[in-house]
Amino acid sequence: xxxxxxxxxxxxxxxxxxxxxxxxxxxxxxxxxxxxxxxxxxxxxxxxxxxxxxxxxxxxxxxxxxxxxxxxxxxxxxxxxxxxxxxxxxxxxxxxxxxxxxxxxxxxxxxxxxxxxxxxxxxxxxxxxxxxxxxxxxxxxxx
Length: 143
Known about the structure:
By secondary structure, the protein is mainly α. It contains 3 helices and no strands. 0% of the residues are buried.
């Protein structure tokens, strides 16, 4: 078979248009993936913002209810008593510091645990001492 000859004009056209076509194809592929990635990120951001919007609407409703409650004088008086320690005439406020009570309970529990360990070790030492004494008596009897 005879080899087919490619004309010089076709070679020249291929050397000029080939790299330009390759660059254009690469640019379009890059643009396609870049824009797809941006769309994906923006969709995620949109979903997050919609969730945040729903939460803010719920908070706004809670705040409206709270404002309505604060307009009630009885609720306001109870709120002041609970949170700020106000009392009406003749009342006394007694407060307990629960953190210090819990620390005291933990300290007492640790002390009790230490005492149980000391007691168990003491009993064990007494038993070992009694066992050694009995063994010593058996040896002295056999002689």
